């Protein structure tokens, strides 16, 4: 998606340059007809607006619609919000999404929009080469040790205070035993997608350059417990401002 936006932006810029050249040629000749001047002025203004919008969408702000209930009650299905794309740094095109000029790093508690890793996609979605975005809360960063015990989240051995989390299912899943040497590797590779690790999992350690993302609607969220840690290169930005519906306008926290 970002590559497509980059190509569109380059296209807009190229057309804008051509239009400027045409304008120079026209206005270096005899005074253009009034009708031509009006039409050109309208097209020039509209194209400039499109170019600015493309640059803003590529570099700074992305509109996002909440697709599911995994972030209830913080964010509801159908909520529309703006995502701050530059706070964690701009992606450099053609560099495997390396970043530059970050304002700050991702912190625990940030609500983040990211491209779904391959382990989170169905076979049909992979076959169709489909990309889709998720929105979750970052609960742990690189180097943190994470464990879930009977639904309770522990980071580095400390039980987390999560007033925004809701639990909709009174049942508990026992999880799977973590006495195998490959447990960490299985989790990092996204092999827990069909495992009962919702309520009990770990401990696992977040690898460098990765984050653990979980939904606030903890019992009904498909997240890093199942598909593994999210690499930094898939991070798109931080949820910024909920603008629709009007009754729910607010800064997202």
Structural commentary:
By secondary structure, the protein is α+β, with helices and mostly antiparallel strands. The protein contains five helices and 14 strands. The strands form three sheets. Strands 1, 2, 5, 6, 11, 12, 13 and 14 form an eight-stranded antiparallel beta sheet that branches. It has a four-stranded antiparallel beta sheet with strand order 9-8-7-10. Helix 1 runs antiparallel to helix 2 (34-59). The chain has two domains: 2-59; 62-251, Umud Fragment, subunit A (Ribbon), CATH 2.10.109.10. Mean pLDDT is 84; it is low at 1-10. The chain has helices spanning 2-28, 34-59, 123-127, 183-188, 224-227; strands at 61-65, 80-84, 90-91, 99-100, 111-115, 133-141, 145-149, 152-155, 158-159, 201-205, 210-214, 230-231, 235-244, 250-251. It starts with a helix and ends with a strand. The protein is 27% helix and 25% strand. A hairpin with a 2-residue loop joins strand 8 (152-155) and strand 9. The chain is globular.
Which structural class do you get from the secondary structure elements? alpha+beta
Q: Low-confidence stretches at least 5 residues in length (pLDDT < 50)? A: 1-10
The named CATH superfamily of the largest domain: Umud Fragment, subunit A
Rg calculated over all Cα atoms: 23 Å
Overall pLDDT score: 84
Distance between the termini: 26 Å
What summary fits the major beta sheet? 8 strands, antiparallel
Please report the first level of CATH classification, the CATH class of the largest domain: Mainly Beta
Instruction: Note the overall shape.
Output: globular
Q: What is the count of helical runs?
A: 5
Percent of residues in β-strands:
15-25%
User: What is the second-level CATH architecture of the largest domain?
Assistant: Ribbon
Number of domains: 2
CATH topology group of the largest domain = Umud Fragment, subunit A
Helix content: 25-40%
